[in-house]
Amino acid sequence: MELPKGLAGVVVDQTKVSSTKNAILTYAGYPIKELKNAPFEEVVFLLWHTRLPNADELKDFRKLLVSQMALPYETVQLMARIAREPQHPMSILRTTVSLLGTTNDVERDDPPRILAKMLTAIAAIIRIRNDKPIKHARKNWGVVENFIYLFSGKRPTAEQVSMFNTVMVLHADHEFNASTFTARVVASTKSDYYSCLTAAVCALKGPLHGGANEQVFKMLETIRETGQDPVQYVERRITSGHKIMGFGHRVYKDGDPRAAILREIARKIAHETGNDPYFVLQEQIRDYMFEKTHLHPNVDYYTALIYHCFNLDRQTFTTMFAACRTAGWLAHIIEQQAEGCLIRPSSEYVGKTNRHYLADKEENSID
Ligand code: COA
């Protein structure tokens, strides 16, 4: 029997959180196309409760999340030390999430408090790295507006909030992707929220998953800085056996539905911020990739440019992905702990058999 590579196509459990069936991404049954302008808080509520909140519930939920956008003093102290280190921000985040799980607050930490702290911690990592003071959330603003303010230090315009809201909604969940599945495996052992989230951050960091957005922008910068022809650059990379980051997907073989929405945002914000040349490059690479490989851009291709237009440095891009995906990770941890059982698959052993320790030792000792 041939085993599916990397569990491709294997259904390992059931979920009510989200689906990519027929290459259509839905959250609790709602197509992502219809949710793209829904407030992020509403989408988080939907993922956690598999139903939409009513107006009062949404108001209360937003208030609750924003009221928790603060970090314990001891976490900030420790973060101030580690976030200045030249390590990758995803490594800093991995340690920070683990740290959050060791404070005196941990007993009271439920999903809303944890999500609020994750967003605040990610923004704080960016501020500390840039030698900027940490900002404090404004209680009358929404979660997205606050999040942008916390990492940038400036109150965003309504248009910026709306664009970033869509980015956050589109990244909020994606059924059993690698980091979510990792979180579910840890949750299946009845471990705690922060252990699950730390493991999820580790999985997201890799360039085949969330780390792709950073690599996409690195490619665009290299092409621009060296003045290379983008088509020749990509052609050379493919011929020498490299993958082009931001293309291809395990589930979507005819195009990632999120990428189509993000492309329009990238086009708009690039124009508004004087970054058109990057978008033009992306279009040239996209056309060439389709012609040459029939691969389509995925979610990370356009967010790379969008984050750049929000003045984020490329090393922090994957922490943005983590900020958005924490909502989905928590939804799956909740579901796994409520309904799932221990995840412990089997393997097919293909190594040597019928070996005998003493006989082999004896043979090895003979000159
Ligand atoms: N650039 C060039 N070739 C690619 C490619 C890419 N981005 N993605 C896939 N391919 C090629 C593979 O080399 C492989 O070719 P082969 O059959 O000749 O060996 C074929 O397409 C199938 O790819 P494979 O990696 O087996 O598919 P998968 O379903 O396991 O992979 C990804 C999905 C996402 C891991 C893969 O497309 C990839 O590595 N993309 C780049 C990283 C990325 O953008 N990740 C973010 C995902 S949201």
From TrEMBL:
**Could you tell me the keywords of this UniProt record?**
Transferase
Annotated pathway: Carbohydrate metabolism; tricarboxylic acid cycle
| GO MF terms, alphabetically ordered | citrate synthase activity
The molecule here is called Citrate synthase
- Give the annotated active site: H249, D300
What organism, scientifically named, is this protein from?
Lentilactobacillus hilgardii
Q: Which InterPro entries match?
A: Citrate_synth-like_lrg_a-sub, Citrate_synth-like_sm_a-sub, Citrate_synthase, Citrate_synthase_AS, Citrate_synthase_bac-typ, Citrate_synthase_sf
Instruction: Give the UniProt family note.
Output: Belongs to the citrate synthase family.
What is one process in the GO biological process aspect for this record? carbohydrate metabolic process
Quickly give the catalysed reaction. Answer: oxaloacetate + acetyl-CoA + H2O = citrate + CoA + H(+)
Q: Name one GO cellular component term.
A: cytosol
